[in-house]
Amino acid sequence: MTKRIPKIFIIMFFLYDIIFSQPYFFYSVQDPDTSEGKLFYISRLNVANNETEAFPPNQLLAKYVRPVWDPSQSFLAVEIFNYGYRIYDCLNPSIYYENDDLFGINLNEILYLPDNNKLYLFANEYQKILTFNLTTSMIDKEINFTNIIYSSSFIYPRQAAFFSEDSSKIYFLCKENLNSPEQVWTFSIDRDSIIQKKSLSEYNYSNEDGYNLQYGINGRGLIEGYITDLQSQDYSILDLNKGTKTDLINFIGWAQSLFIDIGNYIIVLPEIDIDDLTYLTGTFKFYNYINTKLIKTINLPFGGKILNSNAYPNNIYYVIDIEKPTRQIYTLKMDSIFNVLDLTSLNPSSAIVNSSSFTLTVNGHGFDTLSTVYFNDTAKTTTYISDSVLTAEISATDISIVGSYPVWVTDEWGTSDTLMFTVVPQTPYLSKISPSLALPYDVFAKKSSFNVMVIGNNFTTSSVAYFNGTAKTTTYISDSLITFQLSSGVVGTTEKTVSVWIQNSNQFSDTLLFSVLTTLPNQITPILECVRKNGANSYTAYFGYNNYNSEDVLIPFGTKNNISSQFSSISGSPVNIFLSGSQTNVFSIDFNGQEIFWHLNGTSVSASSKSPPCP
Question: Which of 6, 43, 297, 315 could form a disulfide with 82 if both were Cys (CB 3.0 to 4.6 A apart)?
Answer without folding.
Answer: 6
